Amino acid sequence: MKASLHMADVEKLIRVLHRLVDAGNTVVLVEHDLAVIAEADWIIDMGPEAGDAGGRVVAQAAPQELARRPAAKRTHTGQALAGFLDGRLK
Fold this sequence. Notes:
- There is one protein chain.
- This protein is of the alpha+beta class.
- It has a domain at 29-89.
- Helix content is 46%, strand content 12%.
- The chain is built from four helices and two strands.
- The chain has a two-stranded antiparallel ribbon.
- It starts with 6 loop residues before the first helix and ends with a helix.
- The model has no long low-confidence stretch (mean pLDDT 92).
């Protein structure tokens, strides 16, 4: 069963996370929701795949930088994020 937050709740979560950071806190979050990932200051992307084929750092960058990498050098997260960010600009 997949459980996820309603978009309004995701927006509330993002605001709370920003307030924590603005107050001087460090927030480390494991997340798969692209709306939350896009708001991060820095991404540490683990992979390259799931399970036994993963568990290594495959990229570290700000969300926009990760999404702008050439297609051949994009991680799975970078590919998904590129499409998500393009969709937000339209």
